[in-house]
Amino acid sequence: MSEVTLKVTNRKRGTTEVYEGTVTISGVRPTKLVRKSDGGTEFNSKSALTATANNFAKSIGASISQGTATKKQPTTLQSKTRSSSTSKAAKARVTSTR
């Protein structure tokens, strides 16, 4: 039986706290969990996120292990001329198509 690892990230959206979950299966890239009803990645409660992860693991015949909960830090864009940035937008590469 394979194992699915769940990493929970929580952050504030306005005045409410929302949760996002990333599942990792060995040999596959980490993937965010998505609500079936509307395709959103933000869950209103940690238990709803955990239930979704458990149902996913059960559907592929795996067990779930809980990762650590982390708070998502806001990302800021910085100019490339000053220093290196940790934002994904700054790290994106542009390739030309010829």
Describe this structure in words.
- By secondary structure, this protein is of the alpha/beta class.
- The protein has one domain.
- It contains two helices and five strands, in the order βββαββα.
- The chain has helices spanning 46-59, 88-91, and strands at residues 3-13, 16-25, 31-32, 63-66, 70-71.
- Strands 1, 2, 3, 4 and 5 form a five-stranded mixed sheet that branches.
- The protein is globular.
How is this structure best summarized?
This protein is α/β, with parallel strands linked by helices. It is 18% helix and 30% strand. Strands 1, 2, 3, 4 and 5 form a 5-stranded mixed β-sheet that branches.
Strand content: 25-35%
Radius of gyration: 17 Å
* Number of spatially distinct domains: 1
Helix fraction by DSSP (H/I, runs of at least 4): 10-25%
Topology, pairings included?
Elements: E1 3-13, E2 16-25, E3 31-32, H1 46-59, E4 63-66, E5 70-71, H2 88-91
Parallel strand pairs: 1-4, 1-5
Antiparallel strand pairs: 1-2, 2-3
List the main descriptive attributes of the protein structure presented here:
globular; 5-stranded mixed sheet; single chain; 98 residues; alpha/beta
